[in-house]
Amino acid sequence: xxxxxxxxxxxxxxxxxxxxxxxxxxxxxxxxxxxxxxxxxxxxxxxxxxxxxxxxxxxxxxxxxxxxxxxxxxxxxxxxxxxxxxxxxxxxxxxxxxxxxxxxxxxxxxxxxxxxxxxxxxxxxxxxxxxxxxxxxxxxxxxxxxxxxxxxxxxxxxxxxxxxxxxxxxxxxxxxxxxxxxxxxxxxxxxxxxxxxxxxxxxxxxxxxxxxxxxxxxxxxxxxxxxxxxxxxxxxxxxxxxxxxxxxxxxxxxxxxxxxxxxxxxxxxxxxxxxxxxxxxxxxxxxxxxxxxxxxxxxxxxxxxxxxxxxxxxxxxxxxxxxxxxxxxxxxxxxxxxxxxxxxxxxxxxxxxxxxxxxxxxxxxxxxxxxxxxxxxxxxxxxxxxxxxxxxxxxxxxxxxxxxxxxxxxxxxxxxxxxxxxxxxxxxxxxxxxxxxxxxxxxxxxxxxxxxxxxxxxxxxxxxxxxxxxxxxxxxxxxxxxxxxxxxxxxxxxxxxxxxxxxxxxxxxxxxxxxxxxxxxxxxxxxxxxxxxxxxxxxxxxxxxxxxxxxxxxxxxxxxxxxxxxxxxxxxxxxxxxxxxxxxxxxxxxxxxxxxxxxxxxxxxxxxxxxxxxxxxxxxxxxxxxxxxxxxxxxxxxxxxxxxxxxxxxxxxxxxxxxxxxxxxxxxxxxxxxxxxxxxxxxxxxxxxxxxxxxxxxxxxxxxx
Length: 705
What we know:
Elements: H1 3-6, E1 19-22, E2 25-28, H2 40-58, H3 63-74, E3 78-79, E4 83-85, E5 88-94, E6 102-106, E7 112-116, H4 118-121, E8 127-134, E9 140-147, E10 154-159, E11 165-170, E12 178-180, E13 186-192, E14 207-213, H5 218-221, E15 223-226, E16 234-240, E17 246-253, E18 260-265, E19 276-279, E20 287-291, E21 297-301, E22 309-313, E23 324-327, E24 334-341, E25 349-356, E26 359-365, E27 372-376, E28 383-388, E29 400-407, E30 410-418, E31 423-428, E32 440-447, E33 453-460, E34 471-474, H6 489-496, E35 500-504, H7 514-518, H8 526-541, E36 550-555, H9 557-568, E37 575-579, H10 598-601, H11 607-616, E38 630-636, H12 645-657, E39 667-672, H13 682-700
Helix pairs in contact: 3-6, 3-13, 8-9
Organism: Saccharopolyspora hordei
Catalytic activity: Hydrolysis of Pro-|-Xaa >> Ala-|-Xaa in oligopeptides
GO molecular function: oligopeptidase activity; serine-type endopeptidase activity
């Protein structure tokens, strides 16, 4: 250990005597001043934390080994399944030496060319491609980019043939879908109101659905379609049928898992569609709806089916009482997606994607009856990332289904299924060549505190426990999001060094459907943490690891997870990496997108719900003179979802409270600027993973050199 690390001293952080009476509860908040990044005290404190973190992290053994291994594994690159438009195929590919995926187009003659490379637009590496959508004719492309991690999404349109910009940027398009009308002259999209039109502090909300004509002034000429008078936190998605007749709009308040749906017949004419509401959020279920090529309204829903089912209806009679079930809910798998498949022989099929305990399965079904007609053999135990087929304006490859594929040890690639042969073959592998470590992958089942069976993925260098090894466990458990098998260079780096890596499917996630989600939200959020603690205990009981060799990591809602884990069971974990976390659950609604998450967690404005939040809020459950594990907070100053003040306040609280020797179990804060919550360059990814893995390895005894 270097002298500098041995002499690690935390900066003094003033503790204010702020104690608020909230619904009769006395709630202390001694580090509220750290919420303000511009406060001179915050600036000085943060600068000292930067120095402390770099002093510790730069001296960690094995850093270069981790960085080199991560660079090698990331050099595999990636390729996506094609999106077909009138014979043109659009796809992304990242070569081994590229920082970001590049958007390509394959022409009708088979030639390929780069259509959009954000690194060429901005060599600084600060610009990311958020989304893209070609017109139905394949001659125009709408794309959205953001800079410095802010995810604000500037919308542009380019000419596919020439690559020239047709219009843009149009600002305030964060999280916007693009739904082209036939002809490529108009599309429906989502844009926020201008800041001067909304109350102060609500600039990130107040989205509206607009109809836009390419080349017109969006501020003066766009036609308002939906959003006026509705909840300002609504997120919207739009879909237009292939024939341009039907517009379907879905909306939900914040991240609430209940939807509103509207439909309009565009053949009626007029610039403003006459939207007819079909479902309201007060009905309390999820809906994904679209009008398919056969002219029917397809409805994927959790209505009477927490694992989802598929219904159909006449779009002119779209109300739920007219829905007819086509594909029923299954008791042990979750319906994820449905695609129309021409199949090339005049016998169209529906391609149905399900996940069974977070593992993908694909089957074929008769569109008329819903009966299963076949099964698509997948490459292994992994994740289907995309299912695409040619459109009705493409003459060739009508019998082929393209499958985006990955698993824990397979970089994103593309397979193709032939309906004629019934076989699946590798279509495009990731462009780089890497040497993968020997890794055994398995899914095990353990029981949580209340006896609920929970499944967990394990990656290890041996098939069965041979001795206790340093282990790294991660998880999420929130917002009905599922953690499925996917290429994970950080996990492979850990296993290559001899460690065990674990991913439990916690309640609060979507791995087992909406009931699984609801069992880990609001008043039942503690189930998520209990599942995590039980997973750790299972690894110990089975002989995979010990508490002194167990590190945990999580980001965003997963940061809340590991924050609660370290405060509830500091004895169970040796080291914690807590990234972009939610940690002050009393005040989280006051910052950035926080108010859109109260359906998931509850609100401090309600006395009962405040009790839920205080019961596990990491910041409020820090106890003085506790032997806390090593903790590394990693935050991103351009994060527009989770405010970095959560980590600042928690870091100060832990540094004050811990009885652990800072030279042996430090509490550190690592900051990055000009990067946000989501997409990041390869070099930034490698840099972050190097610090995180080296920190965990040093604490748990994993030898990296």
